Amino acid sequence: MAKITKGINIPLNRAEGDLEINVEIEGGIITEAWSAGTLFRGFEGMMRGRGALDGLVMTPRVCGICSITHLTAAVEALDAIATVTPPDNARRLRNLALMVETVQSDVRQAILMFMADFANREAYADHPLAADASRRYQPLAGRAALEVIRESKRLVQVMAIIGGQWPHTSFMVPGGVTSVPEISKLLQCRIIVERFCSWYERSILGCSIDRWLAIQSVSDLDAWLDESPSHQESEVGFFIRFSRQAGMHTLGKGPNRYLSYGNLPLPLDTEVQGTDGRMTAAGFAASTTVIPFEGSKITEDVSHAWYEQGAIPLHPFSGRTKPYASGQSGRLYSWVKAPRYGDEVVETGPLAEMIVAGNPLFCDMIEKDGPSVMARQLARMVRPTGLLPSMAVWLNELVERRGDSFYHSVRSMPDGQGAGMIQAARGALGHWVKIQDEKITHYQIITPTAWNGSPRDEQGRRGAWEDALIGTPIKDSKNPVEAGHVVRSFDPCLVCAVHCLKKGETRGAVNDGLTR
Amino acid sequence: MKTAYWLQGGGCGGDTFSFLSSECPDIIGLFRALDIQLLWHPSLSIISPLSHENLYEDILAGRQTLDILLVEGSVICGPAGTGMFHTVDGHPKKERIYSLASQAQVVIAVGTCACFGGFGADDAIEATGLQFVKKQPGGFLGKDFTSKSGQPVINLAGCPCHHDVISGALMSAAKGVVLELDKYQRPLEWYSTTVHQGCTRNEYHEYRVEESDFGEMGCLFFHMGCAGPLVPGPCNKSLWNQQSSKTRAGVPCFGCTDPEFPRATPFFQTPNIEGIPLSLPMGVNRAHYMVYKGMAAAAAPEHLKNRKSKV
């Protein structure tokens, strides 16, 4: 009879914030999984009653790695309330900062957080590439780890040139941005981006971006890998070889439903191409069938989260965040709510962006093998191939048109409500805001990790990575590195996923049985 | 060799990402040059959960020495003092913070949340600083706490803390330098300079050429909520990410090194009396300041009134 181990608790590090995965293992396979965000911090309650623009200062502090991202969502909500369209140069600068943040996050996540596990000698002693992996990814020592720390830091300078510092600036304001860098600084940004791009091509891809973008299918990918030693030895090539050997192309399926809000509003006059006014397309996909995105289909379920229970799941313009800390119910197990789209469990992130945009390679991967840890992680590693070329275009346009407007004055905020819905590095991020008498009356945030790391909903359906964990083989329950791969392929960011309240709104009893 | 442990409390990880921007030395060179072994960092370590538990037990039992404890994020004490809003395997994380602080030679609070509570200090999460709650001494460890070297908690304020301050404090701790602290336990090395010092808008400030909208060249102190003259910090002395600072990019200083950060009044606005800010630069007499600013405005040269000086 298969050995059944119940209630193994896996604290997961290298995730922003605190995350514990509780699993049941039967015969060496995960048969049940519960994902618990164990830090309640959040911001929504803190926002109520504050000044109309305070979201621009408060919400970047939700997350140290997606600070610009929250700023972007916050300012888009305020633009909507002020019914103002920022000038083209403001669009370019906002987009550039957000793209830099995404690119640095993608390479840091891949090498420092995901592939660091390949250097876990306890887990991969028998893997034929283990020694090579250790030379590459050993924290603060591996060759690739050192390169990523040095190169990503240089790229981050672009955000400081545009916004003053990183993380935690507030240079985006309703109507535009607070300044435009001088010509010499814009030219310096060009050089920083070009330099980063050549490093990215040389070390991460092992080929030019153009050569990479010529890959249209899984067989093209195999041919690319066979084509040259530089492809095999690059981080992408090594990732593919290591993860296939470790079976990651069959691991971590998930719901096979994808969501992207779309991203990067295009300037009115630009060479960069897009869909419906945005560079990155919005949509929902069931497997690879894409249908248009509708914001009204978003709801949040709190049936298994430690919040005051409502009768039905609510849209974030109506939703509330009131913690209900009760030790009596084993049903509640996370500080993360359960967002659903059109009543479906979805995943979001780079793979979802690829599927919604109809990327031929990733659609082919999904149609052949279904979603997997490998597809999800590969999508993240190569996402910069779609961003870096447009960054260069926008920097050129800024140099040519630096004298044009960058700010339409918004002297006071009218009453109203607005949503800022964008794609963060980790996926769909929304801020839903209401303003009255120059004060915030309502602020709800749904983060990518709430989508991906949600607990069960009222119908008992698991969240995306809970679902992806089912069927995962665990060789050593004391070093469950495989479960880590599955969850990390979603790039968890728990500090983003949790919520907060004002004093005096706590309900219910608290005792030691609070967590499962 | 020295050992270091980086503990994550209730925070956003922003101080870690600031620290990654250290230059000359970068974090790799820093740890090597100082011969610091980083026992644990939540974003960088790869040891298994079991090995991490063993490490924690070894530190508590004195089998593993702990020279430098860095705490990022607040100590979450809510609801009602239980700490159950932030747990590790069902137990309040604050217990770990207490245990590790008791074993460390030097304890460093990295960022305003760890120093003073920061975000959530007024809320039900009861975000508490290691030795302060806002301006009130005591905090989580108590006002009489000293680490094994006899020093109180070293408060590296800022949201996030400036990368040069984090690496500078690590260098000092590793070399046994005892830093002189101000009344909020911030090292004078970095916190006896105001954010205003080195601001490129200073010429405008001198002559009271003040802005009331974004996108302009002048000073942001009188109307735009800038706290640069009010709070200490090296932002305009050691530039951020080797490049700039918020005020240089047209963004007011939000006063993030202050124990009261985030302030209760709206950002981007300066509370004032008769057009003069309610909070004046440190140690300034209001009557004198009003006369000085009136005369300064009258003396303002044309090139400043016309915003010809670049910032």
Describe this structure as you would to a colleague.
- The complex is a heterodimer of chains A (516) and B (311).
- Chain A has 20 helices and 14 strands.
- Chain A is of the alpha+beta class and 516 residues long.
- Chain A has one domain (4-497): Cytochrome-c3 Hydrogenase, chain B (Orthogonal Bundle).
- In chain A, the strands form five sheets. A four-stranded mixed β-sheet of chain A has the order 8-7-6-11. In chain A, strands 1-2-3 form a three-stranded antiparallel β-sheet.
- By secondary structure, chain B is of the alpha/beta class.
- Chain B has two domains: 2-191, Rossmann fold (3-Layer(aba) Sandwich); 195-311, Cytochrome-c3 hydrogenase, C-terminal domain (Cytochrome-c3 Hydrogenase, Chain A, domain 2), CATH 4.10.480.
- Helix content of chain B is 26%, strand content 13%.
- Chain B is built from ten helices and 13 strands.
- Chain B has helices at 14-19, 27-34, 49-61, 93-103, 112-116, 163-174, 188-191, 202-206, 286-298, 302-305; strands spanning 2-8, 36-40, 68-72, 75-76, 87-88, 91-92, 106-110, 127-128, 132-133, 136-137, 154-156, 272-273, 276-277.
- The mean pLDDT of chain B is 95.
- The chains are: A alpha+beta (516), B alpha/beta (311).
- Chains A and B meet through strand 1, helix 2, helix 7 and strand 5 of A and helix 1, helix 2, helix 3 and strand 5 of B.
